[in-house]
Amino acid sequence: MDEAGTRKIPSHEVTYGRLRDMILFGHLQPGQAVTIQGLIRDLEAGMTPVREAIRRLTAEGALMPQGNRRVAVPELTPALLDQLAFVRLTVEPKLAELAGRHLTPALIDRLEGIDDEVDRAIRAGAVSGYLEANHAFHFALYEASEAPILVDIARSLWLRFGPSLRVVCARYGASALPDRHEEALAAMRAGDQAGLARAIENDIQQGIDQIRQAQAEGGV
Amino acid sequence: MDEAGTRKIPSHEVTYGRLRDMILFGHLQPGQAVTIQGLIRDLEAGMTPVREAIRRLTAEGALMPQGNRRVAVPELTPALLDQLAFVRLTVEPKLAELAGRHLTPALIDRLEGIDDEVDRAIRAGAVSGYLEANHAFHFALYEASEAPILVDIARSLWLRFGPSLRVVCARYGASALPDRHEEALAAMRAGDQAGLARAIENDIQQGIDQIRQAQAEGGV
DNA sequence: CGCGGAAGAATTTGATCAAATTTCTTGAAG
DNA sequence: CTTCAAGAAATTTGATCAAATTCTTCCGCG
């Protein structure tokens, strides 16, 4: 048998996934700096995997080179949020519409199951659980679009969005969060692609409005 | 304080830039594989810089992991081109419109100078010169938008577009290529932001049509 | 006798780590 | 306030190990 190590997945992939999730689900706050040495300690990984993970996430916009040799989670200014909103509201409804053409009953069932998790997390006030289940719902749907370039772009947008969303959740609680998924699921069952795209658009718009409101109230 | 510093550029940045330009300007063909060892030889760089350059460009969609351990320049299928077209036609006219709000006479002069280079390259049939000058024109404009997220996305799209564009140029010659830049420059001088966005949209549409036509005729 | 395929060896390539070097930051002294 | 030195962090090279591809050889079959 094999020994303890899973040799199938390279260490740099694992390290990338861990760091990505830390950013995506808000375990690193906007503005927070990351160092190679610090991640070597925290993630218990070697230097090469950590370096590559940082480079990848920098290329995806999840990290930004700050000044000379530092890298940090970027803060979402109102101007940046406008740009994010513009692209998200273009790309993600399109993904939903495309996905609507390839939906199977099995996938709809799976999405309902994920949405149940979202609801449970909201009722329990579990911020991390909400963020992860909400992400899972959207990307399980988007993957069905069979449009890898659009999915890539959506991933990058979510990485830029995640840290700030976490801050909002922590401030106002998870109960005030958007869940237009019922609307989306109804459209899926009805085979209504345009309605599905609209439901996703509303869901996204609501999340963006939450962050805009939080920004207006100060303290990012 | 001291003059615009001669900050030393790390080797991995230089290596990234070189490899990126090789892809962007079609010196690597669609489907062509790249190896770490090969790039160490060709770019005369160390292993770490090459690895990081590959990771970054993979994250940007300029390279794709092929099967088990290889990475290659992805081929642009009709389905992928549709996705690219959708996002390019959304993001780049928007970039043009935003840039239109920050145009200065100096920048317009500079863009005219770059467009002269484009024309010269077309008349000379210089494919590489055309690709580089055309890229310079668009991104000199886009940079003025002060919308870094949209610029990032546009860069990623161009990286996915470049190799196939080169193939089309090489096949039909550079003289059949789009140059709606005059239209764009006229709109800039008139302060017509909507017209500028339309001109850029036409320019992009023309480039996409060229590749669609080439794909329809076979041989990527 | 020639052809084809499979098994195994050799070479190439990728992944990871550790050490050496360079560069930047920081804090104290002039 | 500037300058210099010490320390920490990032960069880079080289070495080592693991995985995969390629090449070779040999056996069986037509």
Question: In words, what does this structure look like?
Answer:
The structure is a homodimer of 220-residue chains. By secondary structure, the first copy, chain A, is mainly α. Chain A is built from 9 helices and 3 strands, in the order αβααββαααααα. The first copy, chain A, has helices spanning 11-24, 36-43, 47-59, 78-100, 105-124, 127-143, 148-172, 181-190, 193-216; strands at residues 33-34, 64-66, 70-72. In chain A, a hairpin with a 3-residue loop joins β2 and β3 (70-72). In chain A, α1 crosses α3 and α4 (78-100) packs across α7. The longest helix of chain A is centred in the C-terminal third of the chain and has 25 residues, at 148-172. The interface between A and B is medium-sized, with 30 and 30 residues. Chain B binds a DNA duplex (30 and 30 nucleotides) through residues 8, 10-12, 35-38, 46-49, 51, 68-70.
